[in-house]
Each structure stands twice: as structure tokens, then as C-alpha cells.
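Input (RNA polymerase sigma factor):
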Amino acid sequence: MNFNKKMKNMVFENLEIEIKKLYKYCQKLSGSPWTAEDLVQETMIKVYRLKKTDPNRKFNFSFLCTVAKNLFIDEKRKSKEVIHFNEDFYGEVMIQ
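Output:
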């Protein structure tokens, strides 16, 4: 098994279960299924890169949601779009 395949298995072995929940969170956050798909993909790429630099790092669902939320906010800032973000509402989504 080559290095990239090992790394892929290490990163996504435990996260695969969480992807559906992350998609639901991203869809609620963005209000769009297409944006949610993009957010999930960008989140997983970021986590993959983090895992490459720190193989022992553990990830949980809360961390994934934080990464997705930050990516969403960054994208809105780039487009200078104003967003109204209710931390309490989206915090409840993560718990469910």
C-alpha cells in the first residue's frame, strides 16, 4: 500500500461516518445543497491536509463543524456578502 493510500485511510476511516451529519450541518448553515456540498468538500480537504502535517491529531464532529463554519464565513467575507449568524441556532444543529 503506497503512502497516499495509507494516509487516505487514516484520515477518512473515522470521518466517513460523520460526512452525512456534516452535510446536514452545512446545508442548514448555508441554506443551499450546492454550497453544502462545496463546504463538505473543502472541509475534508482541509482536514486531510491537517492530518498530513500532524498524523496523530484526532478529529471530532465539533471540529469539522468549526472548520466548515469558518470556511463559510471566509467565503462570505471574500464576496463581501453580509451574513447574519446566530451561534445559538447553529450550535443546536451540531448537537443533534
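Residues 3-95 form one domain.
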